[in-house]
Design a protein that fits this description.
single chain; 90 residues; mainly alpha; three-stranded antiparallel β-sheet; 4 helices
Length: 90
């Protein structure tokens, strides 16, 4: 899955397309793993550039490869098919 590089997305749009909870996306922003833009003063409005989301997805894919292919982690154990973010890879 690729996000349009030159478009900007809300946290909800990214979370919905990836079928993850919004808090997963917010954690990636807060940790610095996912670049974001803030418009306005005070709490403002956050937008995620498509190129930044694609970079984050590539980083997540590399982490999964390291854990599940190179490492001994179980993809079944890490999969949270309920969508409640209880177990998360990246």
């Amino acid at each position: 899955m690729q996000f349009e590089r030159n478009e900007f997305f809300t946290v909800k749009q990214v979370a919905d397309r990836l079928k993850v909870h919004k808090s997963t996306v917010y954690r990636a922003v807060k940790s610095g793993d996912l670049d974001s833009l803030k418009f306005g003063t005070g709490t403002g409005t956050i937008r995620l550039p498509g190129y930044a989301v694609n970079t984050w997805l590539n980083t997540c894919a590399e982490a999964a490869y390291d854990q599940f292919v190179n490492g001994d982690a179980s993809p079944e154990a890490a999969d949270d098919s309920t969508g409640d973010d209880a177990a998360e890879v990246a």
